[in-house]
Structures are given as C-alpha cells and as structure tokens.
DNA sequence: CCACTTTAATGACGACATTAATTAAGCCGT
DNA sequence: ACGGCTTAATTAATGTCGTCATTAAAGTGG
C-alpha cells in the first residue's frame, strides 16, 4: 500500500538485490543465466556484477561448459565474504553456530539450560559467550560477522528492540535483544524459533521453490511458520502463526495456555503421552523424557490396540489442524517438522487423509503435505539466514 | 523473493503509483503534503503531478488555507477521469453498480436469481446486461469504463481466466470470466465476494489505516478476507481465508461442505437457526426466510432462556473462531461483517470476551474486534475497487 | 587457419531524481 | 500602498543508471 519513493540509486540497489538473491539461492550461475532470469540487459548485468566482484561479494568460479562460442564464467557468492552466527534458544539449551556465507557450518557450541528457572540474563550471557567461542574457534574476526540471528521458542514482538514472551521458559516481556545488545555491537535479529526453522526449510529444505508454504512444527509444543509470497508472514506484532493454540476441540482438553481444546493439547508430544497414559487407565508411560516416552508409545503400537488408537487419533487431530491451515492460508505446501512429527513420520499418510476429509477440496488439491528435510537443529541455521535476508534485500549494502 | 528488475522508467512508474495511491486514499492533498508523505523532492512531485494533470488523472481543486506565504493548491483525483463497474454475484441476485472515480454511486441495477438452479450463462448474461444498463442510465461511454470488478460468493481460482467453485450455487469449475469476456472487451477482475467486501472496508470502512486486518463475514455461510501488509492475501490459488470451514468442534455437527464441526456449522445463520430449532425440541422457528428467523430468535431472547442460551453459545463459538484468526494472523483489527453478524451486533462484547479466553494474551491485546461500517451491499463497491487497485499499482497507466 | 558462434565490454543516448537557485503568490505591519 | 517575510512552485545544473548498438574476446569445427 504505502509505496516507498524510488530514485535512480534505488534502481541499482534493486537490481543488485535481485542478482544477489538469485546467486545466493540458485548459484553458481553465469552472467547469461542472470540475464535470462532477471530480464536485465547484458551490459546491466555485467556492470552490476563487476561492482559486486570488486567489492568481494561475488567471485568468478571457472568457466562453464560450452559447445562453441566463448564460454561463460560461473559466478558465485564469495563464501568468505562474511560470516553469520545463528543461535537456537530452546527450552533446554542454547546452541550457537557459526557459518560462512555459503552456509557451511564452521563451529558450534552448546550450553545446557535448567528448564526449571531460566534467567534471561543467563541466556544472554550464553549467547555472548557463544559468539566469542565460535568466532574464536574458527579464527573469524568479529568485524567479519555480518550479523547474529537468534531463534527463540516463544512469541517475539518486534519493535525498537525485540521482546520475548515465552510461557515455557516463564518469560513475559523479556527484553532479550537489549540484554544481548549490551554485550556486543553486532547487528541482532531475533525471531521465533519456528519461524527461523521455516526459513531454513524454505531456503534449503522442503520449502524450496514454493511461494506459499506453511511449516507446521510439532515438538513438545506446537507452532507454525507461514511463508506468503516467499517471505515469512509476521503479522502486526510478529506473533502470527500460533497454530498450537488455535481451538480444534471446542470446550475440550485444557491447554497449558489456559484455554480449552487447543490443538497443542491434543498433538503436542506432552499431550500425546498424556492421552496414552489416560488410555492406559493412568499407568505411566515408561521413559525418562518425552522423546523416549513417545518412542515407547510408537513401539507399543505394533502390539497394542490402545497405543494404535492413540496414534490414529493423533493423526486425525493433526490432519484436522493441517486442514485448517490449508483452508485459511491456501499454501502450495505444508511441511511437517519438529522432533515429534519426525518421530511420527509413519503417520503421514493418515494425516494426509484426515486433512482431506476436513479441508475444502479445491485448496486441498493445491497443497502437498510433506515432511521436513533438515531436522530439528535447523533452527540455528534458519536464524543465521535472517541477517543474510536483510543483507540481500538491501542489495548487499550493510546498513 | 523473486525481485523484478528495475529500469529507469520503473522509477517514474513507482513514484506515480505512490502519489496516485496517496491521493486516491487520502486526498485531496497539496503538493507539499505529497512531498512530506512520500519523501520525494519538491521538483519531483511537481513534475509527476504536472504529468498527471496533463493526462487528466488529477485536477487542482482550489487553494488550501494559509497563514502567510503562497497558499498551496489542493490536488485530487479527477472524479470523472474514468468509471468503474462493480458486480455482486450473490446466491439470490446479481447486482451491478456504476461508480465514478471518486467512488460515488451513479447507477445500479439488480437481477434476481433462482437459487435452486443458477446457470452460469444466465449470470454472465445478467452481468453483461447490467453493464449496458448502468452505463446507459448514467450516460457513460463504455470506453470510459476502466474495468469491471466482480465479487462472487464462492471460491475463485485465479489463472489465465478466473474459475469459480460455488457450492451454494452448485458451481464446480465454472469459467465465469471466459463466459463474461465473450460479451465485452472491458477488463475483468473476478474475486471472492468476501474478499471484495474486505477490500471495501479496508479502503473506506472499518479497516482504514490498518496494515493487517481480518474481515470475518457471517451470513448464511461464513467466510473471511485477510489483509496483510495492506493487500488482500490470496494464497496459492486465491482461495485463502476459508474460515467458515475450519474445524472448531472436532467431530462435531455436520457441515454442508461434508466435514464435521466446521465453524460455519455453528455460527452460520442457517446453523444458528437450526440449533435454535433443536433447542426448541424440533419446533420450527417462525419466519419465511433466514433473516426473519434470525430476528425471531433475537426477539425471543428477551424472554426465553432457551433463545438466550443459543445466542450465548453463538457468541462463544464465534469468539473462539475469532481467537483462531487472531492467533494465526496476528491482525491489528478483526472486523465482523455480513448480515447475520450485523443482526447479532449486540453480541459483540460477548464475542470479544470469548475471544480473549481462547486467544493468546499477546496477540489478543494487539487486536481490536469491531463491527463493519459499510453494510452488506459493499460487495459491489469492493469489487469496483479491483480495477482501481490495479490501475493505481500500475502508476495510472492502462495495460 | 579461418568462418562461425557465443560471451563480455564500450560508448552514445535518454529517462529521472536531486540539490540549489529563482520566481510566484500570498500574509502583515507601518 | 508598500516593503519585508514566509511558503509554494518552477527552472537549471548535476549525476546515476539502464538500454541499444557496436566492438572485442574467446572458444569450436571444418
């Protein structure tokens, strides 16, 4: 709606952004490839590319195959032009990873958290220590780090400084960005962990090529990341996509959010285990943590009709939840991720079927329902893409 | 993601689009206002504006107030630069309206439909006849009509030609655009009626100023239009926002879509009346049509606890549905519209309260829940804005 | 070794916005 | 009535940038 003004400079910036983005996501490519994919003229591409090479952002990488005629040079983003830090602030640990510009993992470090009481200052300390640790380990100068992306399992309100609300950590309006910014000058990008995971899948995993996709994450809790037009949808205050706390069973099971009948109260790992426990007439499910308890349930399903029923119900609930996403967002693709969804991968056909029963035919036929490709640890990878996304959109100019 | 290339010409086009859009939505304005709001320099604004005046798109309209200094001229979109046709294809009638460029209604005509069997060709015929009728009545030359916007109560898939799926009309993959295009050369824009109504409320009603809003429509059926970043969200095949068929009560009442427990099966007017009938142990609700039956229920609520209970339940269901929208889309504003919602306006406080119980606190506090301002007939008005939106985005150049 | 093809680089040209300077058009007080 | 002041709009000079047309470069194949 509110269009920004355009000036002659912004033309160059836009074209730089287009070429850089294309090279980053689909590179290496030749100048001619860029001509074809962007619609720019040959001289314009050459001109911009020569700037980018001079700035060290892009490098030539050998000649392409040719059958007659001058062979074209391959171009690619220079892998060591800059480095990225990605952070995953989970409920049980803080994980800090360092990547080069080609998203190759260079170093990582992990700090366990006491889930009982997680102090924001402690988390901020871990993040800062982690940045020092990974840059030190890889021998990367802090000045060469383009930015730090942080994925947090909780609602993140963007504003002057990002503020975190995380029920599971007992956080309410924690000014995490301010706490971390006090200890570093690096640009910070804080976002919800589901959204960063979605971003990773979008660029490097099951979302590649889609313009409209929903990434549905099932772990202990349940969340979603919505990508519309290739970009993560954030809404007014960045908390869009709280799929786990949509009502699926009006007046149903109490959810830890305080409401009744939330999706999470049925298909979150904690809820699945609890439903199994109830189905066993209160007999506890063996296992020292949720992951092993869920696996116990899956093992039991081979022999126990009770366990089988719990899993069938889970697929049906999940399918209905997915159907809601399909009806509301009309995505090309729904990607199921999170550790519980991956453990329950065998339920995928049943989930598809249940979704087909509850969704409208037309949007359902447009959407494919798939499993994620990158696994759970991609939260940090996705977080590291946040500074890159900004950088690419800005045409490769640091703010 | 896929950025379009920019050329020198596109700079002018973008700036024209920015000025025109601002003038259309917030005009009349002075050149100085435009300088301030767009960030363009004075000469650039003057230059573009003089082009627009020369083309007849914009006109000067008197001097503005001034306390010292040369008074600035007011600028406004020329109301008679072009005309728009808006069409509302409902379940019981086709309504065709003609507007000038200031969206003043000049003429309108209505054709009743037999809801039992509605032939696509018949509807197309009504639309074509309606275009002739309204332009004839207002003395507007067809060449001066910028385009025809059509809001249809059904799922509209955009493609080469728009295709309509409308359960209520018994339509499946009806190539409505092709049928109409056979009889006119005017540019056609077909969209879902809920989306066009949302567009009208967004530009001229309860949505003004919001960037993220959801328009929830409750009539005989239930639908929604989602606006993200000021633009209607369509999804992969334009069917996004099918709120009425999201599951609210897992395994609950059968819906006419074939699934169980859809929101529409609880809060659609038809469903409300049916629930009331059941609460009356099967005694039919008096009234010859849904509207009068719903009013009978509302009247009864003053004296009957049974009726009161049905309405209270309705507010609670609706609130839970709204909470789902808030959790998923994180809008600044939720606008309730549709004839049934307007009849039930007194339930608004109860709906707000119920939404607060089921939504997460953070996004709930960001969102206001309001009634629509334009009434039900704004479908055609919103449809008429479709050609304008295209025209403004193109910088005031016809394709 | 030369014709042919494809890629890359140059130069003339035109579209546009920007800044700085001018001109236009009104207030106000004497 | 008439300068002085303020704000609005236009003109002039400057610089950015993409396009088209042309030239240079770098291969393959007979």
Automatic annotation (TrEMBL), chains A, B:
Task: Write out the similarity annotation.
Answer: Belongs to the ROK (NagC/XylR) family.
Question: The organism sits in which domain of life?
Answer: Bacteria
**Stored Pfam families:** HTH_5, ROK
Organism, per UniProt?
A: Micromonospora costi
- What residues does the HTH arsR-type domain cover? 21-58
List the Gene3D superfamilies hit by this protein, alphabetically.
Answer: 3.30.420.40, Winged helix-like DNA-binding domain superfamily/Winged helix DNA-binding domain
Annotated protein name in UniProt: ROK family transcriptional regulator
One of the entry's Gene Ontology molecular-function terms is: DNA-binding transcription factor activity
The record's annotation in InterPro entries points to:
ATPase_NBD, HTH_ArsR_DNA-bd_dom, ROK, ROK_cs, WH-like_DNA-bd_sf, WH_DNA-bd_sf
């Amino acid at each position: 709606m509110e269009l920004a003004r355009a000036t002659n400079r912004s033309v160059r910036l836009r074209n730089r952004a287009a070429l850089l983005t294309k090279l980053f996501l689909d590179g290496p490519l030749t100048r001619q490839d860029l001509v074809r994919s962007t619609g720019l003229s040959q001289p314009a591409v050459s001109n911009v590319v020569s700037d980018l090479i001079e700035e060290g952002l892009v490098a030539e990488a050998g000649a392409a195959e040719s059958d007659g005629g001058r062979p074209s040079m391959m171009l690619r983003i220079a892998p060591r032009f800059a480095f990225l830090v990605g952070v995953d602030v989970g409920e049980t640990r803080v994980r800090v990873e360092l990547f080069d510009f080609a998203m190759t993992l260079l170093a990582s470090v992990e700090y366990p958290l006491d889930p009982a009481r997680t102090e924001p200052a402690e988390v901020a300390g871990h993040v800062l220590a982690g940045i020092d640790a990974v840059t030190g380990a890889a021998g990367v100068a802090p000045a060469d780090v383009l930015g730090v992306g942080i994925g947090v399992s909780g609602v993140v309100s963007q504003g002057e400084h990002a503020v975190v609300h995380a029920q599971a950590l007992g956080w309410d309006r924690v000014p995490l960005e301010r706490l971390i910014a006090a200890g570093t000058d690096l640009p910070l990008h804080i976002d919800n962990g589901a959204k960063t995971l979605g971003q990773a899948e979008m660029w490097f995993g099951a979302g590649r090529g889609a313009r409209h996709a929903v990434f549905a994450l099932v772990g202990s809790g349940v969340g979603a990341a919505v990508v519309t037009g290739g970009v993560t949808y954030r809404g007014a205050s960045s908390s869009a996509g709280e799929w786990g706390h949509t009502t699926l069973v009006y007046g149903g099971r109490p959810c830890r959010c305080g409401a009744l009948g939330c999706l999470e109260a049925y298909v979150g790992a904690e809820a699945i285990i609890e439903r199994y426990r109830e189905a066993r007439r209160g007999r506890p499910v063996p296992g020292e943590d949720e992951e092993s308890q869920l696996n116990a349930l899956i093992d039991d399903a081979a022999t126990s009709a009770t366990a089988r029923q719990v899993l069938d119900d889970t697929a049906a609930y999940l399918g209905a939840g997915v159907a809601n996403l399909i009806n509301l967002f009309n995505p090309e693709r729904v990607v199921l991720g999170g550790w519980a969804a991956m453990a329950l991968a065998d339920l995928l056909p049943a989930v598809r079927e249940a979704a087909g029963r509850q969704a409208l035919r037309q949007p359902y036929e447009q959407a494919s329902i798939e499993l994620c490709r990158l696994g759970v640890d991609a939260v940090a990878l996705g977080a590291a893409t946040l500074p890159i996304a900004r950088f690419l959109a800005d045409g490769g100019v640091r703010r």
